[in-house]
Amino acid sequence: MKGATGFTVIKNGKLVDGTGNSPVERGAVVIENDRILYVGPEAGIPPVPKEAQIIDAKGGTILPGLVEAHFHATYFNVSALDELDIKYPVEYVTLLAANNAKLLLECGYTSARSGGCLFNIDVWLKKAIESDIAPGPRLAASGREICGVGGLMDWNPDFRKIGMEGLILLVNGPNEARAAVRKLVKDGVEWIKTYPTGDAAAPDTNDHHTLCMTFEEMHAVVDMAHNHGLKVTGHCRANEGIKNALRAGYDTIEHATFMDDEAIELLLIRNTPVVSALYFEQATLELGRGYGMTQQILDGHQETLDGGIESAKKIIQAGGRMGIGGDFGFAWNPHGNYARELTYFVRQVGLDPVVALKCATKTGAEIMGREKDFGTLETGKLADILVVDGDVIADIAILENRNRFVAVLQGGIIKAGQLSKPH
Description:
By secondary structure, the chain is α/β, with parallel strands linked by helices. The protein has helices spanning 83-86, 90-106, 121-130, 174-187, 215-227, 239-248, 261-270, 279-287, 295-317, 340-347, 353-368; strands spanning 7-15, 24-32, 35-41, 53-64, 66-71, 109-114, 138-140, 145-148, 168-171, 191-195, 231-236, 253-255, 274-275, 322-323, 385-388, 405-410, 413-416. The protein folds into two domains: 7-64 and 374-420, Urease, subunit C, domain 1, CATH 2.30.40; 66-368, TIM Barrel (Alpha-Beta Barrel), CATH 3.20.20.140.
């Protein structure tokens, strides 16, 4: 991915650096080529060439580019679980994924970690983005996911004689789990996504308190993945599944819905980040009935939301790490609404806006393993920066409106926002 050349000065805005520090009321950032040269008060801007590009933040906010920590590039207007696998042919899904990646960048998310992707499209999407063939976030790919036979993602009946070829690698036992990881290593992924537990979305298969993978299968996945330098995450709602994932050495936990004190203690000891994805549950409760969801399913999602909020509060209060991301791409939770997750955490969970932005920037970069490159506004880091017309700390929901974006910079280049539009 090419970076900018020359100097850029961003000033006249509240500076939120993503570290959790208090904002600088009149801050500035100086960029040299694709890296940050200076961050701090506007009064301390060092000398720059007279031809330097100047970006006026209009009294708004200067912050790091956001990190979407649970991105499904190939989900598009999904209205039922069985549409996740083979709703469209791979050629069309590839085009949809490229469009979703472009939209994510336009929404201020300069980086993302995939949470699973049909046909390993995210592996190739990452290559296209890095080669400047297609616009999109700096991407960590995960490709197809791993689930135990009969688990949450194994819904096709055997008599149909079709598997889950696009989305899932089904395993039965540790040896098959190792083989699945080896296949994904060969495919070129960076993350291994698994399904250790069930979900309220499929109560007839296994609800959110059900385990879908054995500890031995999970440990085999981690052992093989770590041997190849890959990281492992898992869809973990059930308390025992969360503890199994932590004991097996998972690198992040997705959802972490129902956690007892022992699970919290294990999480803190291992300093494992969590991505709760709570807004998806809220959107499901508000709109799910219109997509044919029964009261049983909606009740399950209400329990999931209540448990997820309680666990998220415990994690935050205990000093645990949390990334921000969600299952966007469903019909009731479409792509483009990414920042609603941030708004939800501030307004409903009670997270301080500065802390929420740290979760959505610094912790997201840590989850991706790239905290030395981006995630905070610090000297020497890549100039992935979001400039917003408005006070994001006073009203976090401003981030939901990309028309308020003055500029989205990636490596110092303006990729979206008002300044990217022709005049």
